[in-house]
Write a structure and sequence with these properties.
By secondary structure, the protein is an alpha+beta fold. The protein has 3 helices and 4 strands, in the order H-H-H-E-E-E-E. The longest helix has 14 residues. It is globular and about 40 Å long.
């Protein structure tokens, strides 16, 4: 018997963040506004997925108000290739701040790009926000 192929709208494809879970059981509920990330790492993963899906609205909404840009223009031709979480510090459900070190790979116009960053997060009134990041080599 042939297996039915699921479409991305059904939320059954693997999440872009690389967790191994389906979008519906990972970043989907955050991006769709049905819940909020409970850890800094979950927010980091959902923000990566937002980049993949071109969701500038979500990126701005999860950016700390003191460091958030007024406008965020995403590169339309950027192809995101993968996310690797290297380390976390703090950022748990009971923490007020946290850090996530990651490497995100992408390609624009045939040129490979590797972003290695240590991102800083703050939890305000139970909600995590991206503050800023340090670029690493």
């Amino acid at each position: 018997m042939a297996r039915r192929k699921h479409t991305s709208r059904e939320g059954n494809h693997h999440c872009h963040c690389g967790s191994g879970l389906t979008r519906e059981h990972c970043c989907g509920p955050f991006l769709d506004g049905r819940s909020i990330p409970q850890t800094a790492e979950a927010l980091m993963r959902s923000r990566y997925t937002a980049f993949v899906e071109g969701r500038a609205d979500y990126l701005l909404d999860t950016w700390h108000p003191e460091t958030r840009p007024e406008v965020l223009e995403l590169e339309a031709k950027q192809q995101w290739l993968g996310l690797s979480i290297r380390a976390t510090s703090g950022g748990g459900p009971a923490d007020e701040n946290g850090e996530v070190e990651f490497v995100a790979r992408s390609r624009v116009g045939g040129k490979g790009i590797r972003l290695h960053e240590r991102s800083h997060f703050l939890r305000i009134d139970g909600r995590w926000y991206y503050v800023d990041g340090d670029f690493l080599v």
